[in-house]
């Protein structure tokens, strides 16, 4: 073992910014072009590897008059921000099983400035996810598979999903702690499980953490220690409910000199105060409670939108009564 | 190894609340009796093992007209809150090497409602700390030794301090991450180092974490996994600068049924909004920067008190220019 591994780095580690994609879950993806462009430039300047600019989801399911462009990531909208993307930053978009018209809406890679399609599914949607992975791969994209909400499914179900996904051309499989419920020991076991399931396939393991228990950054570190080479973060930790692993924390930990934290502080100073006036995220008490109870944060989000928002005891009592 | 250790518990683990002691560093310990009494009652109701009610520090060094009672913890003041303390909760107070008149101000245990004296020192004050430990032990107290700011001293210095402290009657030696600079791998190594140094002495290892990098709770978990049985936390994470490990997070993790999280949510709902109007703490950008740079948070505290408080890029540039 190295005497002080925290000051060295593993060149294989790549960082994905999902500020617009996950942050957009708070405001129906209604960010201004100015902000999306600022995040793009920040990612380029900071040496970040991927920027997930939104979802490739269905306009039939999500009404276009109620959602911003980043719910759909049409080619013209993406190019309005990144042009032909003359940078080393790769562009990613997420497609949800059950919520996307992936056969038609994901166009061949040679016509798109998007580089990576991240297929998101629940375990019971693994079959559709496999079709989506194959489709995106055949169309020429790099592909990732994000199996969501794994803290609420049985080990055997995860094993089954991983066995199937291992046979697909997905480049990465991501450990997703949707509810911010996992402790480090669980993250360690899951990364190990994903690693074993993908052995010999060349697949990388990713980590996507939520911050309900103030563990998003810590669990990301734990996943890295256990071998994950694909890590998600967002500017100022913006994201649904409690938010995600903060980019400013992550880049402070990663020692690869290709990363530069200063552009992130610049974005936070120049753009985040306005965003924070409009939307709320962070490890607030109701999100802590749902994280501890391993529940979807929707009840906590509703509570924070109500007049009782600061009554954390009342929320705790409600959750415990409903268990 | 256990298949799911995060749902079991180790009965040896004891929790110390340092809300008033560490939180008081933000407001010169000028809490109302009403709040201190509420924290006391919360600790009793929540099954917490120790409440650190403040410092036993010198009235010569800290002007009594500028500091509240909890900077000194005179016997009458403590008894005004806890009476004869007819509960299972033990009362603790911290005495700083170099800042306390411990020979006279710490009275014999049989005359005091305080149970535990926590001796705090920097490594270069180890010699005085040893005298303080012996003194408090002879007076009849349980004694802990908190060596501060270890993230900035040489390994050999820590080894030397631990070798000396191992020969004292201190019951506990606490790993203290004063600057919120440590990552989990460092915490693991330090707990192991402290454990080895105390081998055969029966001393317990403690952990006191700061939240600059949102790692206070995670590092506390890591220390527990590595064998620490004495853990510090505060209500809502209140504490100097970025604050401490939050009690509401910690009690959600600990599975010993003697702990009860509900009184903590009650305190947070009924008393914390007022406190938050008066003082500020949390992993705000300037504290992240000093944590990443392994610096004392004093420059970040000054920045947050200035008109430039929200200019995180300017603070980053200042810190980097001054390195």
Tell me what the structure shows.
Two copies of one chain form a homodimer. Chain A folds into two domains: 8-277, TIM Barrel; 285-322, no CATH class. Chain A is globular, with a radius of gyration of 19 Å. Helix content of chain A is 40%, strand content 13%. With 323 residues, chain A is α/β, with parallel strands linked by helices. The first copy, chain A, is built from 14 helices and eight strands. The A-B interface holds A 5-6, 183-186, 211, 213-219, 221-222, 225, 246, 248-249, 252-253, 261-262, 265-266, 268-270, 273, 285, 288-289, 291-292, 310-314, 316-317 and B 5-6, 183-186, 211, 213-219, 221-222, 225, 246, 248-249, 252-253, 261-262, 265-266, 268-270, 273, 285, 288-289, 291-292, 310-314, 316-317.
Mind telling me the CATH class of the largest domain in chain A?
Alpha Beta
Largest interface: A-B, 42 and 42 residues
Principal-axis shape of chain A: globular
Roughly how many Å is the radius of gyration of chain A?
19 Å
CATH homologous superfamily placement of the largest domain in chain A: Aldolase class I
Count of DSSP H/I helices of chain A: 14
Could you tell me the strand content of chain A as a percent range? 5-15%
**Poorly predicted regions of chain A:** none
